[in-house]
Amino acid sequence: MMAKVMDKIAIEYTAKLIREPRPWGLSFLDRNYEWDIRLWNPATHAGMEFTFYQRMAPIKPPTLAFMLCTLVQEARYIENASGYTSWAQSQGFDKDDPDAYEAYMECYEQTQELKTLLGDDFEQIMAMSEKQIYAACQEVP
């Protein structure tokens, strides 16, 4: 299912270094990248844009499979929650924390964009079990 979906989606990205390495030595922890990601469906002209932060070595461009699987996992948390309070509790956030609410709204908006991007495939993916999604994400090139 995920492979079928990925055949329909295109990815573009740009990266920028957001923290310079320390002058006394290069450490992989010093390299923090911000990726501006754009996913779109050329057939439907639906698309979404977001920023992805990467702080690990080696720094490699994020793959379509990785980004789509990450978005699907986040969307599952939104779809399975009955609202903000339920989501915050499931994610270990304090429901009274404004930063938690901001994170919820960002995930909620991304989920809505993902629904538009994937169309009918969104519901089929959401119907998959956690284990099936994980396995599908591992199999996708």
Verbal overview:
By secondary structure, this protein is of the alpha+beta class. It has six helices and three strands, in the order αβββααααα. It is about 50% helix and about 20% strand. A three-stranded antiparallel beta sheet has the order 1-2-3. Helix 2 crosses helix 4 and helix 2 packs antiparallel against helix 6.
Q: Any idea what the shape is?
A: globular
Number of domains: 1
Number-wise, the strands total: 3
Largest sheet: 3 strands, antiparallel
Order of helices and strands: HEEEHHHHH
Q: Which band does the percent of strand residues land in?
A: 15-25%
* Count of separate DSSP helical elements: 6
Oligomer: single chain
* pLDDT averaged residue by residue: 85
**Rg (C-alpha, Å):** 17 Å
Structural class: alpha+beta
Question: Keywords, please?
Answer:
globular; alpha+beta; 3-stranded antiparallel beta sheet; 141 residues
Provide a compact summary of the structure.
The chain contains six helices and three strands. Helices cover 48% and strands 21% of the residues.
Blueprint of the fold:
Blueprint: H1 2-6, E1 10-19, E2 32-41, E3 46-54, H2 64-80, H3 84-91, H4 98-118, H5 121-126, H6 130-139
Antiparallel strand pairs: 1-2, 2-3
Helix pairs in contact: 2-4, 2-6
